[in-house]
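pasting for ref
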Amino acid sequence: MAAMAELISNSVQEMAVDGKEPPAKYFYKGNDAGVLDASVPLIDVPVVDLGLLTSPSTSAQELEKLHLAVSSWGCFQVVNHGMASSFLDKVREVSKRFFALSMEDKQKYSREADSIEGYGNDMILSDHQTIDWTDRLYLTISPEDQRKIKFWPENPKDFRETLNEYTMKLQEMNEILLRAMAMSLSLEESCFLDQYGERPLVTARFNFYPPCPRPDRILGVKPHADASAITFLLQDKEVEGLQFLKDSEWFRVPIIPHALLINVGDQVEIMSNGIFKSPVHRVVTNTEKERNTLAVFCIPESNREIKPADGLISETRPCLYKKVKDYVSIYFQHYQQGKRPIEAVKI
């Protein structure tokens, strides 16, 4: 408990202001620790137009583009998504204003020792764990009866209303995309949605990455893939940092200010029998600029059985994954040990 309390009272934001050498627990110890390089090649991330995807006359071509994106990179940028640039800026603004509050005001929303929900940073589960250079605000959005409103900031005044509106729109988009992904594989349109369930877990993670004195050795987020079905990321409008791993090489993600970056999570990789890829990604730091992002994770209902769709299993492509329930609990056990959680459900 003391270690946890100490961690929260020592926010990364405060350490960045302090300017001292960060503690050793922030230094990344992975196999690729020597190459925390922000100047890796840029990915040409596919761009999918949601308007074209949902219009009968143009959907076939856009479905093909979506299929190519998620079967190669596992990610794409979505435009024409029905949210105005000014609204996305408002979402970014409430996040920035929250992290700009005094430490005393932010700590009103501090997470409890045994939970990730609320304001803080990494849960300490072992002495050997590497800590991410980020402060977060982590909130449950759905099911609504699972919301812990005490962690939803009252300041900025429009924080709750803005987050609610934004995540409602994302949940509509998530349904469109799960249908489209199934159709792109010539499956029944509701095939993935049926596995996703009627009471999915939707969580939001506001990420604040202050300038870091040692970007050569410290990561904003360690390499990982997501436990979700689909993840939506609202990127910082100006500061890059996100990188994806493909064929053992890191690539950086460009910023399209009015787009949302979407990546497939492990549970859609399982449903698609490995055709769609849940990409490993990380966040690098820099010495000069802070970076704000908002990730929203759409996670299947925990008591639903997640398995490869029957239509994707054949003699030439056998079933590659076991059936699994409550994948998130498996995920956290493996992730904190530095293992790739999806390996635990591969046949």
